[in-house]
Specification:
Distance between the termini: 90 Å
Family: Belongs to the ATP-dependent AMP-binding enzyme family.
InterPro entries: AMP-binding_CS, AMP-dep_synth/lig_dom, ANL_N_sf, MFS, MFS_trans_sf, Plipid/glycerol_acylTrfase
Transmembrane segments: 55-78, 109-128, 149-168, 188-209, 241-261, 281-299, 311-330, 342-367, 379-400, 412-431
Radius of gyration: 39 Å
Structural class: alpha/beta
Protein name: Bifunctional protein Aas
Strand content: 5-15%
Number of strands: 33
CATH topology of the largest domain: Growth Hormone, Chain: A
Helix content: 40-55%
CATH class of the largest domain: Mainly Alpha
CATH architecture of the largest domain: Up-down Bundle
Domain Phospholipid/glycerol acyltransferase: 464-579
């Protein structure tokens, strides 16, 4: 026996909320009430004639014996006929039996009462196999354990209700059975009303059960019930696992019967309680069983978890021994002693019941699930026979222990615990894997909040290879305890062979692997994994071969395909999410010895759809990567929006500097929050953003701009940072597109960059003059004293949804008119988290903020990454003011620069080592980073500038090379020259054929597509344009790329920067790089871009390459000759008259080439030439 898979063909079955299950549940509940109500109506009356033990044993025996006598007919009925019909028939019989019972009460016949108890037992015995046998036919298999748990709870609660009801009814009737005579019908009315009502409602509820087909309509009623019972038991015995489970369940009923009988004596004799005080003791035992039953179903999840049973058995042992100790130590003459004993007894009986429920429900579920459909009635009847044989034995044993051996009730509890010890040990010996697995499950689910998706994608039977990402030391444990089947993990040999884990690894069949041991040892491990799969087992490998230090998916090793070779086994991709930051991940640059960020750390696991016969390891890696995106979508609702993270960061940095700027302004967390709260009040007072959702901001990166953005966000407005490098026409186009009525700006700024705008301008200098003492006092109080959760509700921040728009950023217009990109809270929050995870930002980092907020990297990285997490920032409005930038870097100890290669080249030429003395990370984007610039920067400053990739539409981060020192990488490669790094966590990338859209394999060049939480909501007011670039969640970047086997992305060109000449695609960027290398010299101090390539229409070839350049240091003929020697196709060579000299290459304010203006220059010039 072990954990059982329960993913079957369940199309005709339903959930716990289906009409059939609810009807069965209610039928069981009402029937159990009636059974116990009548039984306990008879037993107290019998006590007036018989002694207590005899009355109790007689009542139990009369109810139990029918389960033994009618096991064969019960099995026959359950298999031969529809179980629904049998259930309805039993309910009709119950009404007739109740009528007979009331007649016996009226006659005052004790023997008649016990006859009715016997008939009720017979009715229940016939009902039992059909009841439990119908469960697998009504419920989907993954609901079976929970259904059993709830049904068990219904049985237990109903038994308790029936016990109390029976006692009450016996008192109401009040017959003197020493002189039994017929009594008036008036006294019988309460009992008649209750018993007939319960029976009638039970019949009605049974009608709600859907029609169920007979399991074996050809079965013949056996002539010899004894022989048939023997055959049923023999069939049960043939299945060792089912027989053991049935014995375990029978042992539970034996304990339950003995405990129930013993409680009455324990309370009245040992604790000296009156009869009314004994009721709660039994009630708590019953409640405990009910809670344990439900808990067992909940803990089992969507499978049958047998590992719960041994832990339940240990609970029975413990609580029974404690009950003995209480009874043995109590002093009946001391009221205080009995009071304490009573309270502790109540607690122990509750625990005893809970443990019993945990013990039994997995066993019953296992019997139902594993018994064959055709003979399920026979198997259940045989199991039932065992149960009630031991129940009957319990009644006899109790009489012997109490009346013959004169044992104290507390001693009987001790014997009960002692008897359970070998059972617990035996189950553990049988199920060590399941027991340990469940114990670990319990611990992990206590520490972690585990969510699992796609468990049904695991094959029900047969071998399969699970391939997962690797984030923490406990990943293998998490997978083993969440899988519905046992998994054999492939793990590093040195860890597996540690003394404290070796025996557990052997127990769970862990396959050791050690690549450095040599090819022979490696092949042996892989072959062992393949053999396990061929034998029908699940095997899991972490294909990266190591834990991730950055959260990025690393290269998948080729051993995966070696394992699959020669098998037809599918691959099941698996993704573990949210573990970054847990104490076993590499957050903070170490795997252990750090405090958890929260209690019950979240963990999400998704099992993907099986991949049949994968073509390559890249296909498997892609599937795992895609699951990361799907899991992010699953947990979107739990993402903390940036403005709420801002509040928490300000509160944790009250007195620590967070931002500073070129003007000398500095702000701590407290000052940032106070400023944001004050300006929010001022904006509201001025009716800014009251009639429009979007508000314009025209400010350079600065402390004031940061406060303005956060204030608008707190006010639930969308802050639109306008691009002040655009023409007035384009700026007003952006304003009109957003429906902006107010633009927040500064007089000082507009003096430097005058722009005529068709909206009302609000100057921050004027607003600042209107700050009142009340504003300061209120915001001071909120900043320092109001709890964060209350502050969020005051400002309604808890109502902000992840999918709400946070900002609109207009594209630079390098290839056309600016388009408004709508970025949500979800986009920015996840992008910030990805950046922190990749580069391990902490409170000691200081970012240089020279990219404006209308630039997506500037907005995400130098605004929200700084104010919503730990790093600091220093801002300067002019990215090419190298002298001031150098001074700011030296003053504030800048450690991180995020910029473009164009700007970086200026810093290389003019900044000193002293100014960059604390610099350790440089990430560039927007354009390709030349290797020569990389080399020169490293030689001067000792920092290797790396390249990342992103677009405004992608929030913007997609991928990044991670400097090795940033993540203390060992064998993991974080940077690869010539690439833009690997995809950030939870972002998926792939390349497709630009025309057929067919997915391409590793190392193949195609159109780059991106999917993930960073994909924009869409273009503002342009749904058609949005639909063109986002298909099935994949954003088409327009860039050509190839993804290497190790996951690094190489951008090979932009779709808009190719020309189709004579049917061939000619890359502008490649020609630019070659020409730049030809015309530039190592000693060249030039900082500006020297040349750029564009194209114009050509009647004969379709397009014509044009080289737009500043004055060159070499003649054109010499340049063309050198270019011709570069081993490129002749089609790529521009003609001599295709060189256009200009004074300045058009550049956008973000440092990128202005491709639109560049093309227009060429068109204007050559149209004049040909005119």
């Amino acid at each position: 026996m072990n954990t059982v898979t329960v993913t079957e063909a369940d199309d005709h079955r339903g959930s716990l909320r289906t009409q059939s299950y609810l009807g069965l549940w209610l039928t069981q509940f009402l029937g159990t009430i009636n059974d116990n109500a009548f039984r306990w109506l008879a037993v107290p009356i019998a006590k007036m004639v018989y002694d207590e033990s005899t009355a109790l044993s007689l009542g139990l025996a009369c109810f139990t014996i029918p389960y033994l006598l009618f096991a064969t007919p019960a099995a026959y009925l359950a298999d031969r006929y529809s179980k629904r019909s049998v259930i309805i028939g039993c309910k009709i019989a119950e009404i007739l039996i109740m009528a007979l019972g009331l007649f016996c009460i009226w006659l005052g016949s004790i023997s008649g009462l016990f006859l009715v108890v016997f008939l009720m037992g017979m009715q229940s015995a016939l009902f039992y196999p059909s009841k439990f046998g119908s469960l697998p036919e009504i419920l989907k298999s993954d609901q079976l354990s929970k259904g059993n748990g709830l049904l068990g709870m219904a049985t237990i609660v109903a038994a308790a209700v029936g016990f109390v009801l029976g006692m009450e009814l016996s008192e109401k009737i009040g017959v003197d059975y020493e002189n039994p005579v017929p009594i008036s019908s008036l006294k019988i009315m309460p009992a008649a009303l209750v018993l007939f009502t319960m029976a009638g409602l039970g019949l009605i509820s049974s009608l709600f059960i859907s029609k169920l087909p007979p399991a074996d309509p050809e079965r013949v009623l056996p002539n010899n019930p004894v022989k048939d019972t023997y055959q049923s038991l023999n069939q049960l015995f043939k299945s060792k696992a089912l027989f053991r489970a049935a014995l375990g369940s029978a042992f539970f009923w034996f304990l339950a019967a003995l405990a129930q009988l013993n409680i009455d004596a324990y309370g009245t004799i040992q604790l000296q309680l009156d009869q009314t005080a004994v009721g709660p003791l039994l009630a708590l035992l019953v409640i405990g069983v009910g809670v344990g039953s439900v808990l067992a179903g909940y803990w089992s999840g969507d499978h049958v978890e047998l590992g719960i049973s041994p832990l339940g058995a240990l609970g029975i042992v413990f609580s029974s021994i404690v009950l003995y100790s209480i009874g043995a130590l109590v002093d009946p003459s001391n009221a205080l002693s009995t009071s304490y004993a009573y309270r502790w007894s109540c607690l122990c009986l509750l625990v005893l019941g809970l443990a019993a429920g945990l013990f039994n429900i997995p066993l019953e579920s296992y019997i139902q699930h594993r018994s064959p459909d055709k003979s399920r009635g026979r198997i259940l009847a045989a199991a039932n026979f065992l149960c009630f044989t031991l129940t009957l034995f319990a009644s006899g044993l109790f009489w012997v222990l109490r009346e013959q051996l004169k044992l104290e009730p507390s001693t009987i509890f001790l014997l009960l615990g002692i008897a359970t010890m070998p059972v617990a040990i035996y189950i553990f010996v049988l199920l060590p894997n399941a027991t340990i697995r469940f114990a670990v499950w319990l611990v992990t689910h206590t520490i972690y909040k585990v969510r699992v998706w796609g468990r049904g994608n695991l094959p029900e039977r047969g071998g399969a290879l699970l391939v997962a990402n690797h984030v923490t030391w406990l990943d293998g444990v998490f997978l083993m305890v969440t899988s519905s089947r046992p998994i054999r993990m492939i793990a590093y040999e040195d860890y597996v062979n540690k003394p404290w884990i070796k025996w557990v690894a052997k127990l769970f069949g862990v396959i050791p692997i050690k690549p450095e041991a040599g090819p022979k040892a490696l092949i042996t491990s892989l072959q062992q994994a393949r053999q396990a799969i061929e034998q029908g087992e699940l095997v899991c490998i972490f294909a990266e071969g190591q834990l991730t230090r950055t959260g990025q998916l690393q290269q998948f090793q080729g051993g995966v395909m070696h394992i699959l070779k020669g098998t037809d086994a599918p691959v099941v991709p698996v993704y573990l999410d949210e573990l970054w930051g847990s104490i076993f991940s590499y957050r903070g640059g170490r795997f252990l010895w750090k405090l958890p960020l929260r209690i019950r750390y979240p963990l999400s696991i998704k099992f993907g759809k099986p991949i049949e016969k994968p073509d390559s390891v890249h296909q498997i890696r892609q599937a795992v990567q895609d699951l990361g995106v799907e899991l992010m979508e699953e947990r979107k609702s739990r993402i903390m929006v940036p403005i709420r993270a801002f509040l928490r960061q300000c509160r944790s940095s009250l007195f620590r500097r967070k931002v500073a700027d070129y003007s000398g302004n500095e702000a701590t967390g407290a000052k940032l929050l106070i400023g944001s709260l004050i300006f929010k009040r001022l904006f509201r007072r001025k009716n800014i953003g009251m009639t429009e959702n979007m508000v314009g901001v025209l400010l350079p990166p600065s402390v004031a701009a940061a406060v303005t953005n956060t204030a608008l966000t707190m006010k639930h407005n969308v802050a639109v940072n306008l691009n002040y490098t655009l023409s007035e026409k384009d700026v007003n186009h952006c304003i009109e597109d957003c429906g902006i009525k107010h633009v927040l700006t500064s007089r000082r700024f507009l003096e430097k960059r005058p722009i005529e705008m068709n909206v009302e301008l609000i100057f921050l200098e004027d607003l600042k003059e209107e700050i009142s003492l009340a504003d300061k006092a209120i915001t001071f109080f909120q900043t320092y004293l109001v709890p964060i959760f209350l502050l969020e509700r005051i400002h309604g921040l808890h109502k902000i949804e992840p999918d709400d728009i946070l900002t609109v950023i207009f594209t630079s217009g390098s290839t056309g008119n600016p388009k408004g990109v709508m970025l949500t809270n979800y986009n920015i929050a996840t992008n910030v988290d990805a950046a922190i995870q990749l580069l391990h930002f902490d409170k000691n980092d200081v970012l240089l903020g020279v990219l404006p907020y209308f630039h997506s990297f500037g907005y995400m990285a130098t605004l929200w990454l700084v104010i919503a997490s730990e790093p600091q920032a220093v801002y300067h409005f002019n990215p090419i003011d190298v002298n001031m930038i150098g001074k700011l870097c030296e003053k504030y100890g800048v450690s991180v620069i995020i910029t473009t290669p164009t700007f970086l080249k200026r810093y290389l030429k003019r900044c000193t080592k002293e100014q960059f003395c604390r610099l350790d990370t440089v990430v560039t984007g927007a354009e390709k980073l030349p290797v020569e610039l990389q080399t020169e920067f490293y030689e001067k400053f000792g920092v290797l500038a790396t390249e990342g990739y992103g677009t405004t539409e992608l929030s913007p981060l997609v991928s990044c090379n991670v400097p090795d020192h940033r993540s203390k990488l060992t064998s993991e490669v974080g940077t690869k020259i010539g690439t833009v790094g690997r995809a950030a966590p939870n972002i998926s990338v792939k390349v497709v054929h630009p025309e057929t859209r067919e997915d391409l394999d590793a190392e193949q060049e195609g159109l780059l597509l991106v999917k993930g939480p960073n994909v924009m909501k869409g273009y503002l007011n342009q749904p058609e344009k949005t639909a063109e670039v986002i298909r099935d969640g994949w954003y088409e970047t327009g860039d050509f790329a190839r993804i290497h086997q190790d996951g690094f992305i190489e951008i090979t060109g932009r779709q808009s920067r190719f020309s189709k000449i004579a049917g061939e695609m000619v890359p502008h960027i490649k020609i630019e790089q070659l020409l730049t290398n030809i015309v530039e010299s190592p000693d060249d101090e030039e900082e500006e871009i020297v040349l750029a390539v564009t194209s114009i229409p050509d009647e004969s070839k379709g397009e014509r390459i044009i080289v737009v350049h500043r004055k060159l240091n070499k003649p054109t003929d010499e340049v063309l000759k050198s270019l011709g020697n570069c081993d490129i196709p002749n089609l790529w060579l521009p003609s001599r008259d295709s060189f256009l000299e200009v004074d300045q290459i058009p550049i956008l304010g973000t440092g990128k080439l202005d491709l639109r203006s560049l093309k227009q220059l060429a068109i204007d010039h050559y149209s004049r030439v040909t005119a």
